[in-house]
Amino acid sequence: MIPPNGNNNGDAPARLVAPLACCISSRRLGRVAADWRLFCPPCWDDTTIAGPDKVAQVRRRRDRAGIGEEVRHREKWRLALDMFDEMIEQCGLPTLPVAADFGYGDCTLFRLGLVSGYRLCCRTGYG
């Protein structure tokens, strides 16, 4: 995770930019990361910020963190669907059921995306 601006002055939560991994499980290997994306929240995307001073601040923060121009805000559930599609299309993995925790399993658009790709969604983490 990357803090928002070295001094954590309260402009934004400290866990703003975090990797998002898509894991697969196998009996031989256990659970391993199969793909990943960098999650960029709106406050780290200079194209979603209003005001030239704030835009400049976000650009400096992105430069210090080494975040390239191609990384923009995209919802985590959309990133997860992108990773599933990439693994199926580019890696030749079969379409299999997906287990998702509450953060994804409760997102209707994520579940609809899974169903449209002929995958099943199993919600886990009931408490």
Assign the structural class, choosing from mainly alpha, mainly beta, alpha/beta, alpha+beta, or little secondary structure.
alpha+beta
Distance between the termini: 27 Å
Task: Enumerate the spans where pLDDT stays under 50 for 5 or more consecutive residues.
Answer: 1-17
The tally of strands reads 4
**Which strand order do you get reading across the main beta sheet?**
1-2
Q: Which value, in Å, is the CA radius of gyration?
A: 17 Å
Overview of this protein structure:
This protein is an alpha+beta fold and 127 residues long. Helices cover 34% and strands 20% of the residues. The protein has a two-stranded antiparallel sheet. A two-stranded parallel sheet has the order 3-4. The N terminus is likely disordered.
Secondary structure layout:
Elements (H helix, E strand, L loop, with lengths): L17 E9 L3 E10 L12 H14 L10 H16 L6 E3 L1 H4 L2 H9 L4 E3 L4
Parallel strand pairs: 3-4
Antiparallel strand pairs: 1-2
Helix pairs in contact: 2-4
Short description:
The chain has helices at residues 52-65, 76-91, 102-105, 108-116, and strands at residues 18-26, 30-39, 98-100, 121-123.
List descriptors:
127 residues, two-stranded parallel ribbon, 4 helices, single chain, two-stranded antiparallel ribbon, alpha+beta
